[in-house]
Amino acid sequence: MKYIVPRARDGSLSTDSVELHADDGSISFIPLAEGNRDADAYRAWLAAGDKPAAAPPVSPAPTTASVSAFQAREALRLTPDPLGGKGTLEDAVEAYVAAHAHDHPTLKNAWDWIDPWERDSPFVLGLGEAFGMSAENIDALFALAATIAH
Prior knowledge:
Elements: E1 2-5, E2 17-21, E3 27-31, H1 37-47, E4 53-54, E5 66-67, H2 69-77, H3 89-100, H4 105-113, E6 117-118, H5 122-130, H6 135-146
Parallel strand pairs: 1-4
Antiparallel strand pairs: 1-2, 2-3, 5-6
Helix pairs in contact: 2-3, 2-6, 3-4
C-alpha cells in the first residue's frame, strides 16, 4: 500500500486529495475533507512520520473527453467509494441520485439516460463535486472508462 499525491493539470501537486494504491492494484481517491475517515487515516499516517510519493509529471496526453454510459458506469463500479463507504463509487452515486431525485429530477434523468458522458458536463462536474473528486480524479476515472471495451 502506498499513498500518492496526484498532480493538477498545471503540474502542481494536489492539496485536496490523495490516491491510495493498494497491494491488490486498486486505487482509491481520497478527498482530504474533514470527517472523511480515509482522510483521517492518511493524516495519522503522515503524523507517524510517513511521506507520500508524488505522482509523476503530468503527460501532455489529452484528457478523455467522452465515454459511453456503459464505460462510465463500469469505471464507477471498479472504483471504491471515495467518501469511505463500503461499496463502490457506483453504489454511492446510485444512493446519492436516489436521495436527491425528488428535489432534483433532472439529476435522476441524467443518471438514467445521458449517453455519452461528457467529461466537462454539468452532470459529471456536479457528481465529482458531490464526492470530493478533483479534476485529476475525474480525468483518471475517464481514462479508466476509456479502457473498457463494450
